[in-house]
Amino acid sequence: MNNGKVTLVGAGPGDPELLTLKALKAIQRASVLLVDDLVSDEIVAFARPEARIVYVGKRGGCKSTPQAFIEKLMLMAAREGEDVVRLKGGDPFIFGRGGEEVEHLRAAGITVEVINGITSGLAAVTSLGVPLTHREHAHGVVFVTGHAKPGDTGTDWKALAATAHSARLTLVIYMGVSGSERIQDELLSGLPATTPVAVIQSASLPTQRHITTTLGALASAIREAGMASPAVIVVGDVISGVALAAAHPDAVRVA
Questions:
Q1: Of 101, 118, 135, at which residue does a domain stop?
Q2: Most buried in the list 55, 134, 160, 243, measured by CB within 10 Å?
């Protein structure tokens, strides 16, 4: 039997209307779907009725299906001639371990395609009606994880703070809620305590909620509001535009 193929599909932040057409077609074509925990039921419902759905939950801070086992499942299904979709929240190549999966599959001789999805860091700040970059406030953006793998020291927040301050960058921090106290303390070494911050939970979903605060009050604001994963933390002067967008709701329309 000829090998099948594997497609890594970005399901986006959760809203099914934010899927790309290419992602939708891949989901509808698949005979096997390996689905991450953060992919909404509405998106999984696009799969054809006879498709086999395998849930391989991966959520920060929770017990997850081992990555090696997921890769084994993909490889087995592809070798059985299946059309496999690995359905991942957000984008497969932004903190989705898509690079590891592509390397593993290609080394085994399996054809792999990657279909991008809207990453939650982009969807989250757009939902507030403000940009990640702005000619007057932010000359660039950095996507960074707040969760290090075991044995890794993780992000050098002090160095990043100094760079963000001098280069006027927006910081988008994934999986940072549980480590917000350390992140706050180290970012304060290079950024003012008055730096605007937003924390957006469940971006694009009906359950979305957010808070705006300052870097100096970040950890306490998260605790007081009961913010939890999945959430992104956005640090930078672009967040000062949230109040303006709220004051003029007709000025900015977000999908």
A1: 118
A2: 160
Cα-Cα end-to-end distance for the chain: 44
The answer to whether 58 is a known catalytic residue is yes
What's the pLDDT tens digit per position in 196-228? Answer: 999 999 999 999 999 999 999 999 999 999 999
Determine the Cα–Cα distance for residues 115 and 179; give it in Å rounded to an integer: 31
Would strands 169-174 and 231-235 be described as parallel, antiparallel, or unpaired? antiparallel
- Of 58, 74, 88, 227, the catalytic one is 58
Model confidence over 74-104: pLDDT tens digits?
999 999 999 999 999 999 999 989 999 999 9
* Annotation says 175 is catalytic: yes
Q: What is the DSSP letter of 90?
A: B
Indicate whether 98 and 132 sit together in one domain: no
Answer yes or no: 158 catalytic. no
Distance, in Å, from the CA atom of 92 to the CA atom of 106, rounded to the nearest integer, reads 16
Residue 63 shares a structural domain with residue 146: no
Domain enclosing residue 177, as ranges: 121-247
Overall number of domains in the chain: 2
Q: Are 227 and 124 in contact (CB under 8 A)?
A: no
Final residue of a structural domain among 88, 118, 148: 118
Confidence of residue 253 (pLDDT cuts 50, 70, 90): very low
Together in a domain, 238 and 127: yes
| Catalytic one of 15, 36, 88, 91 | 36
* 61 and 136 inside one domain: no
Same domain assignment for residues 90 and 127: no
| Residue at 140: amino acid letter | G
Tell me if 118 sits within 8 A of 40, measured CB to CB: no
